[in-house]
Structures are given as structure tokens and as C-alpha cells.
Amino acid sequence: MYSRINSAVCSGMEGRTVLVETDISRGLPGISIVGLPSTTVMESRERIKSAVINSGFDYPRGRITVNLTPAGLRKNSTGLDLPTAAGILMCSGELSPGAGEKWGVIGELALDGSILGIDGALPMLVRMREEGLEGIIAPAENRQEAIMAGGRIHLAANLRECVEILREKHEAPVLSDDGLSAECTGTEDFGDIAGQEHAKRAMVIAAAGRHGLLMVGSPGCGKTMLAGRLPGIMPVMSEREMFETAVIRSVSGCRGDELKLCHTRPFRAPHHSIGRAGLIGGGAYPVPGEITLAHNGVLFLDEICEFETKTIEGLRLPIEEKSITHFRKGEAYIFPCNFQMIMAANPCPCGYLGDRDRECRCSRAEIERYRRKLSGPLIDRIDMNIAMDKVTYSELTGTGSRIDTRTMKGQVDAALSFARESGRTAYNSELSAKEVSRWCSLGGDEMRFMNSAYERFAMSPRSYSRTLKVARTIADLDASKDIRTAHLAEALNYRIEYER
Fold first, then answer.
1. pLDDT tens digits, residue range 434-450?
2. Which domains are delineated in the chain?
3. Within 13 Å of residue 193, how many CA atoms lie on the same side as its CB?
């Protein structure tokens, strides 16, 4: 007996359709799976047998062969358990052999026949929906992904429910989208931070142009608090960006409330002990790293000089390319990573170099070794660097007004609105060389000013271009069509060299 049923696997961030072919012939009882299955797929044989028996079905005694097509695609998904079990039941007579040809099925099986949720269900469901199948059966635990994917999707809690759906071929129920969106408002406000008005101004510029930012200051001056509040002033995500973020979370194993759509951008702050694979992704079957989980949002690297040098140097290309590609056995896995980089560092190992009240205990050699963790090429890719001073007692206890999140977000939204009205659709940090020439053109006085700065500060062409982009953002905040000398001067002020 022969049967086939449609399924899917997740390859990187992309759903790929898989045809599960099953054949039962005479021979010693057993099951073999072919078609480049991973160890995870091979181990499903015992799960499937127990699930079929414990669900009240007869398990065939012949030789079972399962072929996963296309054979050249490596399969690494527990979601192939359910279609394989359904194929076996078709061959054994519990279902008609052609019952699954127009159906898509994904799901992991427990020994008692329950269907468990799987990682990466959203891109799989979207891919099968695009195939125009008659219906799709998915785990009940993946309800959130099913609602997002849309289409005719049935949710099943166990193997027997899956069989009943395939037998009756009834219409898929309408899945309610109640609670699909999450509350996005946070309680943290920039107004809670005393002083640091210069740093808050830098945050507004960074958010308006999506510029990378390095903050250097002594412990406790507010670097982490500032970074954590940045998503609150960034522009809300579009529907496309929210869906991309949901796909990434689905692939990374998030379920339920963690997948709810939210207009607030992601914020990731990995610990400095993280390894290279954890930061940029990887593995035998590559999975998203922190830079991908921060896609469309903020990647905050606190205590950046405590990270392993090789780990942070791996960020050079992703910062430029906005994506990371992992090659495994001839196949390319592409993960998006269009994030905004925010870094924080102490000026020295003890943290008190240049502090007004405390004396630095570090030797010059220790300071140089500490700062050498950040290479020149990496710093050159960061648009803005600021030095933060310790908050004074008068600033901490003062009753004066503090700029808050609402005011800062209003400034960011106004700058973005001005840029869109001018004809720019991309963030200023993402302008190409041709667009920089068009939108960041300078007048005579401004050109002479930048000529002097270029020679004096030994700027590279990249740092020159990034300075113009920051100046363009500052001009947008002033609703100025032209970049003025004052805008260039402020932009240069944010290019303070982080001496090694």
C-alpha cells in the first residue's frame, strides 16, 4: 500500500514544503525513513509507533518505508511526526490512501498520541497556505501562528482528532483573533532619569535616523537606563515588520503570548558571556542568534569591552549587510538582522577614569588592553559616540522639568515626517552612497568646514559619510531642508574618538 501527504519544514527563516510518501510491503516488521532526515526525525520512529497504538489504531506489521521529498533537502523538524503517522494509517486502511494528497499536516507526537506544538510553525503554515492545499492540520498549541498565517487551518490536540478531520474533510473553523495584539505601553520613562540631557538628545537623534550609538561613562551614570527606554521613542513597527518579528520568534521557539503582535520594537540585551554562535546564530542546523532576534529593534551590548574580541568582531559584516548567512553542507541559511546597535562601556577596567570624585586605579597598560577590545573598524561603523558624566546631586534632587518619553517621541516622529515629506523613505543611516550625494549635499561654507574637519580628525571615507548622515538627521529635527554648519558641528561632536 502506498500513500502520500503534504507537510513542511523550516529551513533557516523559510518554510519549505515536504511530501511524505509512505509504503508498506512484505518483510520483517520495521520502519525506515529516507530523504536526508536528521537524528531528530530518525528518532520519531518509536514515538510514532507508540502514538498510533495508544490512540487505539492497529500498527501494521509489514515493512514500512517513509520517503521525504525532495530528497536533497535536509529535514530537521519534529513536525514530520504527525504526517508520517497519518501516512501509515492511510496505508493500513484506517484512512483512504488519497485522503492526504490535498492536505498539509505538521505536528509532533507524544507517546500517548497527543499532538505537541513545534518551533517554526508560522513560516511552515504560510508556505503550505501558498501551495493552495484543501486544508491544513496544525497542533492546537500553535494556535497563535495559525491565526497569523490565515487560510483553512484545523487545530488538532491528538492523533485521533487528526484522523477524524482527514476522514470528514469538514470546513475549517474560523479562528478568532481575540488577543492577537499585545499591550505595548511600558512604564519606564525618560523622565525618570535625572540629568544626562546631552545623552537624551543623542538618543533622539539615534532613534530618528536609526544610528548606532556608543555610550562611555562611569558606573551608575545611567547608560543602561537610557538604552532600555530607547524602544519607547522609536517609530512604531509596520504590519510587515511585526510579521517579520513574529516569524523570527516562532523559529526561535516562542509560543503563545510571546508571539502576540506589538508595535513596540524588540529590545535584546545579551550578557557579555555569550558566545559567538549565541550572538550571530549558528549550529549544525542554524538557528537565529541575538542579532536576528533584535531585527527591526535594538541590540544593546552592555559592558561591551567585557565581550570576547572574536565575538564582537563578528558583528562587522552584519551591521553593514543587515543579514547574516550561514553555510552548512552546501546549503545557505539566511537570517535578517536589521537592528540598531547600542553599546555601553566604562572608560577603564575600574570604571573611574576621568571621574570627578573617585580616583582611577588602573595602569596605562590595563586601560589600553581594556579598550583594545573595540577595534577601529568596529568603532568606525558606529555613527555616534558620547561621553557621559556622573550625575550631580543637584541634578538628582532638583525639581526642574525633565524631558520625558512623550516629548522625545514627538521630536522623533516630527523628524521622520519631515524626511518622508522631503521624499526620503529610508532611515538616514541606511542611505546609499548615491542617496547621500543627493540628500546630504553641502553649501560652500559647509564644504570648507568639513574639509578642515576631515583633515584635522583623520576621518575615513566611511566616517565622513556617517557624519553627513547624522547631520542630515539633526537637520530633520530642525525641519531644515539644508544641512547647516551647526548641524555638522553637532554631528562631529558625536564622533568623539574612543581612544584605545
1. 999 999 989 999 999 99
2. 2-168 (3.30.230.10), 190-407 (3.40.50.300)
3. 26
